[in-house]
Amino acid sequence: MGLILRIAVIDADLVGRKRHRFPNLACMKISGFHKAAGDDVILKLDYEGLDEFDKIYLSKVFSDTPVPEDVLIRNNVSYGGTGFYYDKAPKLPDEVEHHMPDYHLYDDWVNDRLAAGDKRVEYKYYLDYSIGFLTRGCFRGCQFCVNKNYKKVSCHSPLSEFYDPSRKKICMLDDNFLGCPSWKEMLQEVQATGKPYQFKQGLDERILTDEKCELLFSGKYDGDYIFAFDNIADAELIERKIKLARNYTDAVMKFYCFTGFDRNDRWDDDFWKQDIFDLLIRIEILMRNRCMPYVMRFNRYEESPYRGMYITIARWCNQPSFYKKKSLREFGLLNAEGSACRRYLSDFEEKFPEVAYFYDLKFEKE
Questions:
Q1: What is the pTM for the complete model shown?
Q2: Shortest CA distance to 260 belongs to which of 240, 236, 231?
Q3: Which of 39, 64, 173, 306 has the fewest CB atoms within 10 Å around its CB?
Q4: ∠ CA 18-115-163 to the nearest 5 degrees?
Q5: 265-280 pLDDT, tens per residue?
Q6: Pairing of strands 169-172, 154-155
């Protein structure tokens, strides 16, 4: 019998962020691999007493999650993930990458949170879902994306690699599932489980076809169908594909709307103004087609002279209870007189009066 190692797994986002509602898949795979080898594995929730462990694995997804620098230089610490390396994150060893995730890694932490009064639904991804990638990569090469170095979409793992029949639902993290040549066979296999499923990262609406719509919208889908509308240049294509999808479903379709990124690397006042208008035009198109926008801001929006507009529009769109009932102007008026929100909206309208059209758009009316 081999030596039993003491292993600590640290989900840095869990330790360093106020809210964390999704498990780290790499952490679960590492834990599953070491537990299968007979090692003693714990989920560590701080950076104290690290000398007690033979090996410590540290992973993070978000680049702004803080991690003590002195932890990273320790001999018994290995770290990785997009939060450290963005598009250059090293891959897990194959024997770890293709190991069944340890879906019980977070159990004690989740139970403690529930005992403290948190709602179970906030931890549904820890408790109810099989999670993994059927495919990896994308052919789009978007400058801002962690997948920009890929040239194609490839099969990554069979469903059996991460599917636990005892769990109620399935969550796929694929980057561009519908871009894989084997999408149909894989989707049919997922649907054959009879479990509700979702694509957490969204799907590429630009490559929808009748065949893809017929199969995708006939399944037992979990939650909103999520797509992306990141570039105003795709407006005509996006709207055409929405109309195609509407031949097969009346379900809610949500679109990630990425904003605050200058594809021409100018970052001047003209860009910031046009970027706000391009965002509002995309929202108007989605509203007209009964779709929900979800605004995602590139971190350089903080440099914009219209930073407050990005914040206000995101607050309005990303809360469906407001977006569905209130125009952007009405949303602003919900805030107290003299509030920052009202000031952002009034200052922008004073400078660019033509924005009034977008301020008064309303989902119910549209």
A1: 0.92
A2: 231
A3: 64
A4: 75
A5: 999 999 999 999 999 9
A6: unpaired
